[in-house]
Amino acid sequence: MDKKPFKNILNNIITFFIILLIVNFIFNQFFSNKGEVVKTGVQISLNKQKFNQNDVVIANIENNTGEEIVIKSLCPSPDIQVETLVNNKWENKNYQTALDCQNIQDIIIPNSEKYAYSFKQWNHELFGNLGTYKLKLNINGEPLETPPFQVVNMSFFKWIYTVLIYQPIFNILALLVHIMPNNDLGWAIILLTIFIRTILLIPNHKVLKAQKKLQHVQPKINALKEKYGTDQQKIAQETFAIYKEHKVNPFSSCFPVLLQLPILIGLYNVIQSGMDSSSHYLLYSFFSNFNLSNTQNIWIGFFDLTKKDIFILPVLVGIMQYIQLKITFNKNKKTSDKKSSEMEIANKTMTYMMPAMMVFFTASVPSGVALYWTFSTLYGLIQQLVVNKSFQKEEITIEVLNENRNKSKKEHYKQVNDQRKKQKETIEGNENSDQENNDDSNITIIKA
């Protein structure tokens, strides 16, 4: 294979990015400040003018006064006043949540700094209804307010995601937290992992068996490539014929991954948002008596499940993922060829690349998601060992059946040959007796 075109493409890409970085640097140094309006005083603003229902409203407060400013805490009420438009009149809207105000401090914003104030603890009660709102804040006697903004219906796809994925995961996890000693979120996530993987047990088992079958027929596919050479159409036809004969679907392994993906995204968002009193409105009516404010986010006194863990859980996931792939793609000495096939090379690459990717993935998400993936991988590893053992038993059974079939064939052929020999001997004996009778009759005639 000629590597020159590939090198040329790679050089062009590198050159393009270097030029882009240089241009960006020059622009930032000489042109980025041109025409900027110098801001003074305190500004309060929003990132957007339309929020979907249940989106958390965040106000950005920027201090350009030349000195630090202090926003007094109004806990358990929000520190920024909310008004809503009712019958063309602005009305104040307030709500007091169940917060531990002893640990809540005043907000201090240094000069030239920004502060993002989140309404998460009061969001559903203050902005849960569709309508027009605005925020008001008083700093050192100076009244500030944002332009009016809208709270609108969430999109259809977000509604589907919330109703079918996010809310069920949230409620199942809330139930498990409720029944766990000390309302431990960690053990609730582990039980949720076992529950989900058990539901997916049968489809996963079929997929793992299909992967083993795919390895089993790989030598036949390699033989096709040697037989037909560059005739890709013929190779494809014969390959699919082999898949059909052995009932193997090469794309079946994607199904469990795709099925787990929305679950993983939902769990990530649930843990990222937090299981506290601000999310109480997401509980189903029959779970409405659950107290989410008592949720214990520290697992085994070490892991804060709402924060990232960049060492222990990622390394565990990487090791288990490597072991699972190693035993998944182990070579069968009876069926493997001397030459490495393209699939075997891809499998070797995946054996090392996938664990590395999982390490980076679990290190970049909250520990609660990493904990789910750790025990999910452990569950998959155990299932892989069971599948390998059952597949070995099936292979032994097939070998025994083939041996018995060969023996029975040999015995059958031996019986047929023996019968043919007996028939031949009988025929020869009859012919000899007939010849002897003819000779006797000839002698009798001569004597007469």
Fill in the keyword field for this structure.
448 residues, alpha+beta, Immunoglobulin-like, six-stranded mixed β-sheet, three-stranded antiparallel β-sheet, elongated
Gyration radius over CA: 38 Å
Helical stretch tally: 10
What is the strand tally?
Answer: 13
Shape: elongated
Order of helices and strands: HEEEEEEEEHEEEHHHHHEEHHH
User: What percent of the residues sit in helical stretches (DSSP H or I)?
Assistant: 55-70%
Mean pLDDT: 78
Q: How many separate domains make up the residues?
A: 2
- The residue ranges in which pLDDT falls below 50 over 5 or more consecutive positions are 31-37, 332-339
| Major sheet characteristics | 6 strands, mixed
What oligomerization state is this entry in? Answer: single chain
Tell me what the structure shows:
- The protein has 448 residues and is α+β, with helices and mostly antiparallel strands.
- The chain contains ten helices and 13 strands.
- It has helices at 4-30, 123-127, 156-179, 185-199, 201-228, 232-245, 254-273, 312-328, 342-363, 367-447; strands spanning 41-46, 50-52, 58-64, 69-71, 81-86, 89-93, 107-109, 114-118, 131-139, 142-145, 149-152, 298-299, 303-304.
- Strands 2, 5, 6, 9, 10 and 11 form a six-stranded mixed beta sheet that branches.
- Strand 9 and strand 10 (142-145) form a beta hairpin.
- Mean pLDDT is 78; it is low at 31-37 and 332-339.
